[in-house]
Amino acid sequence: MSARRRELAVALVATGDELVEGRHVDTNSAEIARELLAVGFEPRRFTVLGDDEDGLVHALLELAAGHGAIVITGGLGPTLDDVTRHAVARAAGVALARDEGVLAGLRERFARRGRPFAEANTRQALFPAGAEVLPNANGTAAGFAIPVAGALVVALPGPPREMRPMLAELVVPRLVARVADLPCVERRAFHLFGLPESAFADAAGAWMERGANPLVGVTASGGRLSVTLRAEAATRAAARELADARAAEVRARFASWIFSEDEPDLAAVLGRELIARGVSVTLAESCTGGLAAERLTRVPGISAVFGTGFVTYADEAKTRLLGVEPALLAAHGAVSAPVAAAMARGAARHCGARLAVAITGIAGPGGGSPEKPVGLVHFGVSVDGVVSTEERRFLDLGRDLVRDFAASTAFDLLRKALCGLAPAR
Amino acid sequence: MSARRRELAVALVATGDELVEGRHVDTNSAEIARELLAVGFEPRRFTVLGDDEDGLVHALLELAAGHGAIVITGGLGPTLDDVTRHAVARAAGVALARDEGVLAGLRERFARRGRPFAEANTRQALFPAGAEVLPNANGTAAGFAIPVAGALVVALPGPPREMRPMLAELVVPRLVARVADLPCVERRAFHLFGLPESAFADAAGAWMERGANPLVGVTASGGRLSVTLRAEAATRAAARELADARAAEVRARFASWIFSEDEPDLAAVLGRELIARGVSVTLAESCTGGLAAERLTRVPGISAVFGTGFVTYADEAKTRLLGVEPALLAAHGAVSAPVAAAMARGAARHCGARLAVAITGIAGPGGGSPEKPVGLVHFGVSVDGVVSTEERRFLDLGRDLVRDFAASTAFDLLRKALCGLAPAR
Q1: Which positions in chain A touch B297 (Cβ < 8 Å)?
Q2: What is the reported pLDDT for A155?
Q3: ipTM for the whole complex
C-alpha cells in the first residue's frame, strides 16, 4: 500500500457486548463513514468488538498498519466493562493519566444535578498519557485523540447525540488538518421518487461505471432513490466544475423524479412546502392505518396546515367519517378508484382542506385475489375540490413495505398536485 | 487462545461498498450473531469491507487464526464487484470451479421468467473448488461453505430475506454438527415496559454480574426493556434448570412490568390480545399524529377490532370529530387531563368501541412552557364508558422519541385496561 493511500484510509471501530451479541446494531460507523467520505477520506473497514480489552489492543495495532486514522466509538463510560481508554493506552505504549480539568468538570456536573459523585466516575477522567482530550458537551464521557503506530486514533462516546457534534466540530477538522493535500472532493445529491433502481441505471448508462469521475452511488429504499455524485480533482474549482456539469445532466435527465437535492425525506419536503405556501391538507387512510399522518406530523410546524387525519380502516368508518356511500362500497369494494375518490372528497369537505389524499389498498399478508392482489393500492387526490385517482400495483414485499410505498406515493401525488396549485387564496 | 475457545468463536463479515461508505447499515451480522449466540457459539468480531477482493482475502486469513467459523454476507451477485467467491477461493488456496447443477438451475430460473440468460450470470455458478454448495430458495445467489486455514468459511447472499432461511436451515445445523460438545445453552427472554434500565439494574442486583450464570443482558429502547437470560451447563437438563430457576425469580420480581416473554413489540402483544378477546378499540391522537394507529395496524388481522382512528392535531379537529367542548379547551388547554378524558370519551362514543385511548402532549421541539414542558403528555382511557386519565413527563430527548414513548405508554395503558376487563359482551 502506498503511503498516500494509507494516509487517506480510515478504519472505524465500534465496541460493546450489546453490538457483538446482536442486541444493538452499530449505526455510528456508517454515519462517520459518510461524513469522512464527504471530505475526501476513504473509509475502508469497520470492526465491531465486544467489551474486550485484549481484542481491541490487537485490532488497533493491526488496523494502524493500513490506515491513517482510526475512529472508535463506545467504551468510554465509568464502569469496568468500558475498556477503550485502557486498550488505546496499551496500543500506544503509554500509561493512563488523570486529567484534573476533566475531573473537576465531572464533579461540578454531578453537583449541579444534585447527584453524589461516585468514585467509579473518576475513571472518566483517565486518558492515555499525551492524548489530546476532546470535550463532550452532551455527556460525561470525554473523547480523546492520540497517535498509535503512525495512525491517529480517535475515541468518541457511543451515544449518537453525544458522538455526532464531537465528530463534526472536533474530529473532522483535526483529520482534515492532518493530511497536507487532501484530494478536492465535491459531492452532490439527488433524491428521487418512483423510478426503479434498474431503470435509473439503464438511463444513467456510462455515468455508473466504477472508475467514473464523478463517481455515482445509488441507494434504493421504499421507492425512493438517493443518488450521490462524488467528483475528485486536484483543485477545488476543478472538482466543483466536474460535479456541477454532471449535476446539470442529472437534473435534465431525471427532472420528473427528483423531489429534492438536500432532503432525503419526502414527507419533510412536502410538509415544508405546504407550510411555506400555506396550503392546508388532510389525509384519509385505510391500508396505511395512520402511517402517512405519522410521517407528516414528524415535520415541526406542520400544525399550521394539517389539523385532522382520518384512519378509516373499516368500511363503516369510511361511511361514517367520510360520507362514502355504502352502495359505492358494495358495488366496487373498498379497494377501488371510486371509493378512493369518495374518501378524498369526503375528507377535504369534512375539514375544508385545499388538498386531500386518500389511500385504500391491500397491504397483505391476506386479503388478495387474482383481480385485486396484495400490493394493489388506489389513491384519491382532491385539489381545491377537483378529485382525481391513481392506481399502483406494488410488489408484494410484505405488509410493512407495501404500506411504506403507499404512504410515499401519496406524498409524491400531493407534491405534484402542489406544484400545479395556484397561490394561496 | 485455547483451541476450545477458538472453536466456539465466530467472526462475521459483511461486504459491499454501500456498507463501508455508510449508505446502508449492516444488520445481517447482528442477526446472525443472535442466532449463533442462541445455540452456544460466541460471536467475537464483525468486519465490514467494501467490494475489495484483496482486503477480503487478507481479512479472512487474519480472522481464521482466531475463530472456528467465519460467516460472510454479500458479494455473491453476478457483477464484477461481487468478489466474495474469488476472495474465498484465494484464501483457501483453491481455484474456482463451475457447478453444472447450479448453472442448469439458473438457466431454468431465467427461462421460467422469460428473461434472457446473460453470460454474466454464469458467474453465479462458480464456487471455490471443494466447497459445499448451499442452495438459495429465494434468489439466484447460492452460498457455499469451505474450510480456510482450519476455520469453516460460510458465504451467504446479502439480502436478508434470502440469507435468513439459509442461515437457519443450512448453516446453523452445519456449525453445530462441527463442534463435538457445544456447551448446552438455554435462553429466556422478558419484555418489560415502563421500568428505567437503571431501576432494573438496581433491582436485579447480583444477577447482573458479568460472570453470572445465567448471564443477564438488558437492552433499552423507547421505554421498553428486553432482558435475556443465557444459562450454560454441561447438560441440556442442567442448563434448563438454571434458566428456569432464574426466570421464575425474574417473573416474581418484575411481574408488573413484563408484557411478554416472546414478543418484543408491545403493539403486537396488545393487538393479538384484543383480537383474541374480541375487544374493540379506537385511538384519538394529537401529539403522536397517527403513530399509535400506524403501529397497531401493523398487526395482521387487527381490522376485526380496530376500525377507526382519529388524528386530531388541531383544537378545532378535537371539537369537530370528538366533541371536545371549546370551553374545555380554552379553560385547560389542549394538553390537559380534562381534554384527554373528553377526547377518549368522544372517540369511544363516536365508534362504539369498548376501549379508547387519547394522547395529547407536547412533543417539541417548540411549544413547551415551565408549567407544560416538552415531554408532558396526558392520556385518557375509556373502558366500557368509564374514563380515567394518566399524566407522564418524558425526558425531552427529541420529538420522535417523545412520540415513541407516548404511543408505547398508550398501548401499555390499554394492555392493563384489557387485563381488568370483563369477557366480551
Answers
A1: 288-291, 311, 313
A2: 98
A3: 0.80
The answer to whether position B308 is within a domain reads yes
Q: What is the pLDDT of residues B298-312, one digit of tens each?
A: 999 999 999 999 999
Cβ-based contacts under 8 A for chains A and B: 221
Same-domain pairing of B36 and B127: yes
With contacts defined as CB-CB under 8 Å, which chain B residues touch A289?
Answer: 293-294, 296-298, 309
Chain B residues in contact with A400 by the CB 8 A cut-off are: 298
| Closest-CA residue of chain B to A310 | B310
Tens of pLDDT along B219-270?
777 788 888 898 989 888 999 999 999 999 999 999 999 999 989 899 999 9
Q: What is the CATH number of the domain that holds B161?
A: 3.40.980.10
- The minimal CB distance from A55 to the residues B44, B291, B302 is found for B44
A321 & A372 share domain = yes
Q: Answer whether A47 touches B (CB < 8 Å).
A: yes
Q: What backbone torsions phi and psi does residue B375 show, to the nearest 5 degrees?
A: 110, -15
Residue A406 and residue A281 share a domain: yes
Q: Is the pLDDT of residue B216 over 90?
A: no
- Kindly list the residues from chain B whose CB atom is less than 8 angstroms away from the CB atom of residue A296: 289
Q: Are residues B271 and B129 in the same domain?
A: no
Residue-by-residue DSSP string for B135-164: --TTSS--EEEEEETTEEEEEE-SSHHHHH
Residues facing residue B98 across a β-bridge: B126
Distance of CA B9 to the CA centre of its chain: 24
CA B296 to chain centre: 16
Residue of chain A nearest B36, judged by CA positions? A21
pLDDT range class, residue B29, cuts 50, 70, 90: very high
**Please, are residues A391 and A378 in contact by the beta-carbon 8 Å criterion?**
yes
Q: How far is CA A132 from the centre of its chain?
A: 31
Here the CATH number for the domain that contains residue A344 is 3.90.950.20
Using omega within 30 degrees of 0 as the cis cutoff, is the peptide bond preceding B365 cis?
A: yes
- The CATH number covering residue A200 comes to 3.30.70.2860
Answer yes or no: is B271 within a domain.
Answer: yes
Examine the domain organization and report whether A208 and A149 are in the same domain: no
Q: What is the predicted pLDDT for the residue at B38?
A: 82
Quick one: pLDDT at residue A422? 67
User: Positive or negative CA dihedral for A326, A331, A334, A337?
Assistant: negative
User: Looking at CA atoms only, how far is residue B310 from chain A in angstroms?
Assistant: 6
- Amino acid (one-letter) located at A218: V
Last residue of a domain, which of B232, B260, B288? B260
A31 touches B: beta carbon within 8 Å = yes
Q: What percent of chain A has pLDDT over 90?
A: 71
A252 CA to chain B: closest CA distance, Å?
25
Minimal Cβ distance to B30: which of A22, A34, A296: A22
**Same domain flag for A112 and A246:** no
pLDDT at B183: 79
- Based on the fold, state whether residues A159 and A16 are members of the same structural domain: yes
- The verdict on whether omega for the bond into residue B214 sits within 30 degrees of 0, i.e. cis, is yes
Asked whether residue A27 carries a pLDDT value surpassing 80, the answer given is yes
Range of the domain at B152: 3-178
Taking a contact as any Cβ pair under 8 Å apart, which residues of chain B between 186 and 225 contact chain A? 210, 217, 219
pLDDT digits (tens, 9 = 90+) for A339-363: 999 999 999 999 999 999 999 999 9
Based on the fold, state whether residues A278 and A200 are members of the same structural domain: no
Count how many domains chain B has.
Answer: 3
**Residues A42-91 pLDDT 10s:** 999 999 999 999 999 999 999 999 999 999 999 998 877 789 999 999 99
What does pLDDT average to over chain A? Answer: 92
What pLDDT sits at residue A424?
Answer: 52
| Closest CA of chain B from A308, distance in Å | 5
**Boundary (domain end) residue, out of A242, A260, A278:** A260
Residue A424 maps to a domain = no
Segments of A114-223 assigned E as strands: 126-128, 132-134, 143-148, 151-156, 184-193, 215-221
Q: Report the distance separating Cα A389 and Cα A376, nearest Å.
A: 13
Residue B280 pLDDT more than 80? yes
Between A201 and B134, residue with greater pLDDT: B134
Confirm whether B424 is domain-assigned.
no
